[in-house]
């Protein structure tokens, strides 16, 4: 005996939800491993940031920083942090691109400005990668 059409639809929706959860888990694991390190153009220092762009490490490779003017040192540190953050953001874009639904702004998601209702709507429409179109059922 087969189930009702409603039960079949619910089972299909639950399977899609499980698939989306697995894709989200894989994406999260991928993001957890992201970090980027940039070195100052003059090799004075290097900076490592995590996937969110938060500074994890600053290393000075010479003692030249001790004799630098504060403004010059500050500029070198900030420029190097910015480059590391850009590299980390690019790694995040690469990791998220395969799992982002159509119609979602990838840059907004990477920068933390995406709307959760857009993601939920994409799931309901069946637009997540690997999903069949939910409206075709």
Question: What would your notes on this structure say?
Answer:
The chain is α+β, with helices and mostly antiparallel strands and 137 residues long. It contains four helices and three strands. Strands 1-2-3 form a three-stranded antiparallel beta sheet. Strand 2 (45-50) and strand 3 form a beta hairpin. It is rod-shaped. The two termini are 21 Å apart.
Strands ordered across the widest β-sheet:
1-2-3
The Rg value, from CA coordinates, equals 22 Å
Name the average pLDDT. Answer: 82
Range of helix content: 40-55%
- Span from first to last CA? 21 Å
Low-confidence stretches: 133-137
List the helices and strands and how they pair.
Layout: H1 5-32, E1 35-39, E2 45-50, E3 55-60, H2 70-96, H3 106-110, H4 116-125
Antiparallel strand pairs: 1-2, 2-3
Short description:
With 137 residues, the chain is α+β, with helices and mostly antiparallel strands. It is built from 4 helices and 3 strands. The chain has a 3-stranded antiparallel sheet with strand order 1-2-3.
